[in-house]
Design goal:
By secondary structure, the chain is an alpha+beta fold. The protein has eleven helices and 15 strands. Strand 2, helix 3 and strand 3 form a beta-alpha-beta unit. Helix 4 packs across helix 7. Bound molecules: 2-oxoglutaric acid and fe (ii) ion (FE2). The site of fe (ii) ion has 3 residues, from loops.
């Protein structure tokens, strides 16, 4: 039987400890948002007053033709300004994207006990983790989101350990997307005169994770967030969102526009993928590329899914701004560190905008 969700500890036990997730709570028939999910006023999302990001998606097929340099400039410019852009003709088949969204809905539609086997405390494999919110034990208000996270090591391990319901389609999505990520990195690093061979690529994106996020319908979406303000930790994120919308990006304070500090929505575009710069790329570029601060709202009518791929360096990698960039800038804005230490700090703290970067800031 579902507990009283007005009692913080029984809610925590049901949703987090027992792995029922937000989905289990919603399915039990709640009619209002429990106190534990009510965000402070400053974090609530004003849907009516947000503008939409008007930039058309970048057509990546043009990178292979006479327009290469022009498209490369568009990519660099997007990474330098908002840190977010959308791409089409990206080489990931559109029907694969459709089956991914179906797969995510099917996975989260499983009985709680089938998903809960992957809770961190009990998961049969360190590669797979199912959970809810970001750091539930430390958050002042919980996020209205359940997720499963799957780390890539080798094809054989993926096919053995990732959940059977999603392993094949998620692996195919990862492989196809990585080809695109490499192309983007060639452009973004080439802009600094850095040539990418296989070992350099491996040092930038040696660890890959596919997540599936599930945002159940919410009785009072204006009081909650699906994901709070944050930047992603890694190098580049590839994100598939469905048609519901609700992903917002903050325009950086140093942007050359009078809209700085405003939130803009990244509208769903059929067949497109969203790309965003993460903290590692901001650090490597000595702050030239912007790790984008973003957040997600919830809706009352339909559950939303999104499927990000996080590409990050290997945990053992030493990270510091690229010497080519520092030489040009005359100053290093970030110190050197080992990625595993950054990860530890990133995953130990609730989402709080771009505070994660303070770990490395000089
Ligand atoms: O659901 C989305 O659109 C974005 C999710 C996100 O920001 C994340 O998983 O890091
Ligand atoms: Fe994110």
């Amino acid at each position: 039987m579902a507990p009283s969700f007005d009692n913080g500890s029984s809610l925590f036990n049901f949703v987090v400890r027992d792995g029922n997730g937000v989905k289990g709570m919603v399915d039990s028939g709640i009619s209002k948002v429990p106190q534990a999910y009510i965000q402070p006023a400053a974090e609530q999302i004003d849907k009516e007053n947000a503008s939409k990001h008007g930039q058309p998606p970048i057509d990546l097929s043009r990178l292979d033709g006479p327009d290469h340099d022009e498209v490369a400039k568009e990519i660099v410019r997007a990474a330098e300004t908002l840190g977010f852009f959308q791409v089409v003709n990206h080489g990931v088949p559109v029907d694969l994207l459709e089956s991914l969204k179906d797969t995510a809905h099917n996975f989260f539609g499983l009985p709680a006990e089938r998903k809960a086997v992957y809770r961190t405390e009990v998961s049969p494999t360190p590669l797979v983790k199912y959970g809810t919110s970001f750091v539930p034990a430390k958050e002042k208000a919980l996020e209205w989101k359940d997720y499963i996270s799957m780390v890539y090591t080798t094809d054989a391990e993926v096919l053995e350990h990732w959940p059977i319901e999603c392993r094949e389609v998620a692996l195919e999505y990862l492989k196809r997307s990585l080809e695109m990520v490499k192309k983007l990195l060639h452009v973004l690093m080439g802009n600094f005169g850095v040539e990418l061979d296989d070992s350099k690529i491996d040092s930038l994106i040696g660890r890959k994770t596919v997540n599936m996020n599930y945002y159940p319908t919410c009785p009072n979406p204006e009081l909650t967030v699906g994901v709070g303000r944050h930047s992603d930790m890694g190098t580049l994120t590839v994100l598939l969102q469905d048609g519901i919308g609700g992903l917002y990006v903050n325009i950086p304070e140093d942007a050359d526009t009078d809209k700085k500090g405003e939130w803009v929505e990244i509208p769903p575009v059929p067949g497109a993928l969203v790309i965003n710069v993460g903290d590692m790329l901001q650090i490597l570029s000595n702050g030239k590329y912007k790790s984008a601060e973003h957040r997600v709202r919830t809706t009352s009518t339909k559950s939303r899914v999104s499927i990000p791929i996080f590409t990050i360096p290997k945990p053992t990698e030493k990270i510091a701004p690229l010497p080519q960039v520092v030489e040009n800038d005359g100053i290093a804005r970030y110190r050197e560190f080992v990625l595993a230490d950054y990860m530890k700090s990133f995953f130990a703290n609730p989402h709080d905008g771009k505070k994660s970067l303070d770990f490395a800031r000089i």
